[in-house]
Amino acid sequence: MDDDLTALRAGCDRSLTGHGEWRADQLLATIPPGSAPDRYGDGGVVAELEAEVAELLGMPAAVYLPSGVMAQQAALRVHADARGRRTVVCHPESHLIRHEEQAFERLHGMVLRPVGNRYRPLLRADLDAVAEQPAALLVELPQRDLGGRLPPWDDLVEQVAWARQRGAAAHLDGARLWEASAGYDRTPAEIAGLFDTAYVSFYKGIGALAGCCLAGPDDVVAQVREWRRRLGGTLFGMWPGAASALTSLRRRLPLMPAYLARAREVADAVRDLPGVTVVPDPPQTPMLHLLLRTTPEAFTAAARTLAEDGLWTWPQAMPTGDPAVVRVELPVGDATLALGVADIRAAIAALAGRG
């Protein structure tokens, strides 16, 4: 990462991605002054958030945890112990495989079995390759590392039916369920209701402080609470993150359709630029990936020029299999809505070396 470029970030008054720069004062402002503290996760605004999320997802209960890594490990461990099985079927680009340092295997002695084509969402036909009886099927909606893609709704229903037919749990990695709700044009409860358990994040799409909830049946949630303590997640006071989550959820969940519309406007505005590819095209959720035919060095130089002009884009681009192509992820939020589409097009053109 370019330290000089990162240093310019604080001076930018506009941002291309998400809800803009995470500033301490803005994040703290999402905690209402009258928020009631909890004690080791019991009572106060934590209980209020858990009740609201359970109702929003149509689940009997929910529990607040400090991280999604912890939440999903705990939920899947509970499902595995209940069934006496150790295998969880998931997509090759699952967060548990790509971003968690083999925690599932190292801490819980369990096995992640990747199934399907890593370059597209998991489909029901992919599951025909699985002969063993798994503990759970893990489905991520949307598939973040594929640009926010979703499987067809009918296919998703069939995937969950496949799990149930084998006595396996169906677990939703809904880190971006709020975005998936806009993409499917269905309520969060309609989507989560397909599954036995669902995890949702609060710092990603809705821009709150770090934290998440795991929702499901009363007995499963009660066991996840015990695992939260075993894994060191039952902090003395969890109210700041929970209060921030409530504020941000109530404010931004209704805006998801507008974020999706802007993602599609961005795609329309940049797909004809030389050296720019939109993935997926059109966007299926309020996020997209852009493949830019440029070098990492040229990208960083262009990003620095934009930052000097007050527009923050990205600190760096991600490499791809083609050394002449880089990739960036564009989550759409308040900051993206605030920018004019013409300004977004001009910024992407500059980053692709066509400005």
Automatic annotation (TrEMBL):
GO BP, sorted A to Z: glycine biosynthetic process; L-threonine catabolic process
Domain Aromatic amino acid beta-eliminating lyase/threonine aldolase: 38-287
Annotated GO MF terms: L-allo-threonine aldolase activity
Top-rank taxon: Bacteria
InterPro entries listed in its UniProt record: ArAA_b-elim_lyase/Thr_aldolase, PyrdxlP-dep_Trfase, PyrdxlP-dep_Trfase_major, PyrdxlP-dep_Trfase_small
Family: Belongs to the threonine aldolase family.
Name listed for the protein in its UniProt record: Threonine aldolase
Source species: Blastococcus saxobsidens
Organism classification: Bacteria, Bacillati, Actinomycetota, Actinomycetes, Geodermatophilales
